Amino acid sequence: MIANENNVHDPGMDSELKTNLNHIREKIKNALNRCEDPHRQVTLIAVSKKQPISKIEGLIRASQTDFGESYVQEALPKMDQLAESSVHWHFIGRLQTKKAKNVAGKFKLIHSVDSQKLAQGLHKKAKNLDLIQPVLIQVNIANEKQKSGVPLEELSGLAREILAMKHLRLDGLMLMPPFFDNPESARPYFAGLRMCRDQLCHELGVTMPHLSMGMSGDFEVAVEEGATLVRVGTALFGAREDC
Ligand SMILES: *Cc1c(COP(=O)(O)O)cnc(C)c1O
Fold it and tell me: From residue 138, how far is each of 60, 120, 160, 172 by CA, in Å?
């Protein structure tokens, strides 16, 4: 009989997930110990896009609490299936303004706000729900044409607009650096995001605690440069279903 992957609890898979998780937690701890502020809190977000529910459940059993999804139409059904668990969900993918109403109020943090229109859509829904939605602004530091994220020169304007929206709370910045084989090559971008955040806080007289940066290949460098949220997919789960 073929096992139903969604219902069967596979001890081999669980132990592999737990091993990956412990390994990544250890690497984060070691990277933190190389920093000036080793007591900074870093949250590991398990990026579960295109990963089966069974693996998410395995990681939940291994005590992982924060998960990240990139596609609204994939995320919402998964969240429904796991509604009994106390998972914190993060939205990390590109978000179309017309889908803002489906997302606001459902995620602990939305990492990918990059336009005033999108912010307004989220704000409107959060206001209707009478809640405050925490968000990050995604910054396109390298000004890559195909990438989402606000260009550097528009960052401060967008931050001002969001700060004026009472039902959004601006918690920091998010970055997807250009792809490099060598994680050291991403370091200047991570350091750049930290400087942007510090400058913005100074300019606007606010505090924003979070820097969401670092993925499977480069999260240690990101932590060394000040990340408070790292988004790790394949190093934790293995290859995605589309790979
Ligand atoms: C997919 C994705 C990740 C995780 O990538 P891995 O290389 O699998 O760790 C992180 N952040 C964003 C925005 C993503 O879309």
Answer: 27, 16, 15, 9
Q: What is the pLDDT of residues 107-116, one digit of tens each?
A: 999 999 999 9
pLDDT for 104 equals: 98
3-state secondary structure labels for all residues of 163-201: HCCCCEEEEEEEECCCCCCCHHHHHHHHHHHHHHHHHHH
Q: For the whole model, what pTM was predicted?
A: 0.95
Cβ of residue 212 lying under 6 Å from some atom of ligand 1 = no
216 lines ligand 1 (CB under 6 A): yes
Which ligand 1 atom sits closest to the C-alpha of 111?
A: 13
**Region 73-96: what's the mean pLDDT?**
97
Separation CA 187–CA 109 (nearest Å): 24
Q: Does the Cβ of 232 fall within 6 Å of ligand 1? A: yes
The tens digit of pLDDT for each residue in 47-83 reads: 999 999 999 999 999 999 999 999 999 999 999 999 9
The minimum-distance atom of ligand 1 relative to the CA of 237 is 8
Across the range 23-32, mean pLDDT stands at 98
> How many whole angstroms from 215 Cα to the centroid of ligand 1?
6
